[in-house]
Every structure is written in C-alpha cells, then in structure tokens.
Amino acid sequence: MPDDVTIYEVGARDGLQNEKGIVPVQAKAEFITRLLAAGLPVVEATSFVHPQWVPQLADAGELMAMLGEEGRHLPVLVPNERGLDRALELGLRHIAIFGSATETFAQKNLNRSLDEQFAMFAPTVTRARAAGLDVRAYVSMCFGDPWEGAVPVEQVVSVGRRLVDLGASQLSLGDTVGVGTAGQVSGLLDAFNAAGLPDEVLAVHFHDTYGQALANAYAAWQHGIRTFDASAGGLGGCPYAKSATGNLATEDLVWMFRGLGVETGVDLDALVATSTWMAGILGRPSPSRVVTALAPR
Ligand code: HMG
Ligand code: MG
To answer: What domains can be seen in the chain, in order of their start residue?
Structure first.
C-alpha cells in the first residue's frame, strides 16, 4: 500500500549507544528479537565503530553472532572500511554510513573534516555495493548544530547529494540535537526534492530535545515522506553531540499513525511491554508519553 509507512527502529543502536552502564549483550539480543516480534520491519542493531569511541557497542560482533541468521538482515552502522570488514566477516547485508552536514561535527564524530569524510565513505560504499550490500546514509546536524548554530540548507543538501552519489539507496535526514521545527522540515524536504532526491529516497530521523519530534514527523508525513526513524521508548542521544537527547519514541509515532489510519504493522502493546522491560534494565522510566500512558501499573 503506497500510504503505509515504514518505521526504521533505532533503539538498539542510537537508543543504547549513549548509555553509560554497559547493557549485557544477552539483553541487547533479546531487545532486538522483541522489537522484531512486535512487528517493526527494520531494526538497526548496532555499530561497527571504534570500540573506544562508543564503548556501549564494543560487543557488536558478539551481538550479531548471537543473533545468527536473524541478524544478517538487520542494518548496522559502519563508518569506514575497517567497520565494513567486520560486518562482511559476519555475513551482514545492510550497512549505514553516517555523514555530517557540519565541519565541527564531522571532526567530533568521525575525526575527519567535512571533505575528508567522503574519502572515508567512498571506498566503504564501493566495496559494500560490489559485495551486494545495501547502503543507507545518514546526514547529521540537518537542522542546527550546537557549535555552529544554523546550518545552511544548501550545505545540508550538498552533503546528502554527495552521499547518495556515492551509492547510498536511502538518505536519512537527522536532527541530531532535536532543534528543528515543522516549517524547517518542509523547507529542507523541498530543497532535497529540488536537488533531484524525491521523497521515496528520503527518511527522517528526529531527536526530541525540544519536544518537536512528533510535530516534525507529521510535517514530513504530510510532505510525502514514508520512512521514519524512531527509538523504542524514546531512548537515545549521541555521545558526540552536545545536548542531544532521546530520539522520537516509536510508541508516540505508532500512536499518531494509528489515529491517522496509517498502517505501521506494529503491535503497540508488545512494543510498550518491550520498552517497559528495557526501562527496567536501564533503571529509569521511559520518557515516552505513550509508554507512560499505556504501561501497566
Ligand atoms: P580514527 O581514530 O580517526 O580512526 O577514528 P583511524 O582510521 O585513524 O584508525 C585508528 C585505529 O582505529 C586503527 O587501529 C583502526 O584499525 C581502528 P590501530 O591500527 O591503531 O590499531 N579502527 C577501528 N576499529 C574497529 N572498528 C572500526 C575502526 N575504525 C578504525 N570501524 C572513526 C575514526 C570513524 C573510526 C571514529 O571516529 C569512530 O568510530 N566514530 C564513531 C562515532 C559514533 O559512532 N558516533 C555515534 C553514531 S552517529 C549518530 O548517532 C547520529 C545518527 O543517529 C543520526 C543523527 O542523529 O543525526 C546516525
Ligand atoms: Mg540519532
């Protein structure tokens, strides 16, 4: 159905990457299995980044081996050829590279300049595509950057265009620090469309720092976007982005789409139960309003 939406679940990766206490690998595997069982069609599992940069995800290899065949079709973050090698060794089929729209965040998150990041991604994507893998690309800091302030739309579009030209099949536009508002969303999507990237190639990735994530998702849906990143229970935050808080909660998004009569395929009760269970492991309640409303007391 053309009006169905796809929720790209990032809780196990974006949601957990910022957690200080290491979540046991068995709990991560169970989290992913439960998210899949709740009907989420795409569950990003982990990151093959430098383990010292993101210690929480240092167990990526172990986790994917534990998930076995089920894990092979789940996307994982890969910044460079070393990360790709690790993913290929495990027979994984979907990777996601992650670029920055700003110079400062490219340095802080990738230890590269804005231009240098493409030199790191180019051979990674070429080799991945040659091996038959699918490649998603993220652009971070699309709506504002804590160090540089407003980010010119042309700069965001140029970075996104370059990532797609490298061979990415989908581009996820990240509001890494959650500062964007609905008017900006439509403006940026119009600019991408004008640059030859239609809504079908685009996804949106909102963080909820200023409480705008759901309104932004609605604006994107009205524009024609049909792939939405979200994180179970609203977990999340980027370790290298000052002030980034949780992602848009998957439950909040599912509740909105249910009200609109838009099919997500997600079993909301199973998802709430999963997020409530994970909140118990993390030792604090989910910030999601829908989880709070629906969780059994
Ligand atoms: P670097 O230090 O410049 O790496 O880090 P290097 O290429 O100079 O290599 C140095 C050493 O690291 C070498 O080892 C490499 O083998 C090793 P040595 O020869 O010294 O023994 N190495 C690796 N080991 C394991 N896996 C790897 C890897 N790469 C190199 N993949 C690097 C560059 C990109 C690796 C580093 O900056 C990094 O890992 N960054 C990741 C940061 C991160 O994960 N951030 C969070 C995800 S992004 C995000 O959350 C935003 C998003 O959600 C969208 C949004 O919200 O906007 C996606
Ligand atoms: Mg993010």
So the answer is: 6-294 (3.20.20.70)
